Amino acid sequence: MSGTEQASRPPAEHEAWRRSRWEEIAGPNGKAKVVANGRVAGREPRTVAGVPGRWSVTEAGALTVTATAGDGLRVNGEVVDGTVEVPSGSSLELPEGRAGFAGGADGFYGLVVMDPLALERSGLSGVDAYPYDPAWVFEGRYRAAPEGRRVEVGRLTSPRSTEAILAPVDLVVTIDGTEHVLTVLEDMPGQRLVVFTDETSGDGTPEIGRWLVLPPLDPGSAVTVDFNRATLSHHHLSPTVFTCPLAPAGNHLPMRVEAGERALTRGSDA
């Protein structure tokens, strides 16, 4: 069967993944609705853009917020007027109909705020992708990295910045007889992320590269590497909110990876 004929009939599993991917973007808690996020660590009180109050972590590692009733912040339905503890998983209610949640552990927390009307205002209607092609599915493996390894990676802040991000393993995958070794980042606990560029970057796909989200398996484990599931970074949904990492040095594939997501589509693009 030719690649073109096979590509015209993606498997049901891939179609299900595409639906779940759109749910991740546009569903009730979709990332396209995120209008603010931030990280909180350390005992020094700090503000998070778009979120009322001053946030900090206690000596015991608990997240707290200090606000007045006039700030219009509710945690788990209760108005905040003073300093309160915010358990991981707490729901947040904010002015103008915005809502969010707080999560984390061990003294490191994240806040996410969503606006239910953000998707409608953006006009986002879908994600354009290359046709499914089974030739872009490989079996790779995780290779151990030095314990605690961190790599210096660019981040899409304004202006651009760099950060040493945990990189617990490498992904080894053979494409057309050539072995490629890609650095795997763990920018969020439990999430394995390969940020890569290829010869389509800036010529068919975003110049900043794309993502492969992989499972958190042990070194030596086999892992399916499906470039049909290469995604756009969250940065495209809201550049000021999602300051995503760029591809580490060496994470360039010297070929056109014509698989996976290409661009967001807006209502006017239809």
From TrEMBL:
- The protein's name is DUF1684 domain-containing protein
> Which InterPro entries does this UniProt record tie to the protein?
DUF1684
Species annotation = Saccharothrix coeruleofusca
Cite a single Pfam family from the UniProt record: DUF1684
Basic and acidic residues: bias regions: 11-21
Signal peptide boundaries: none
Q: Where is this region: Disordered?
A: 1-21
Note the superkingdom of the native organism: Bacteria
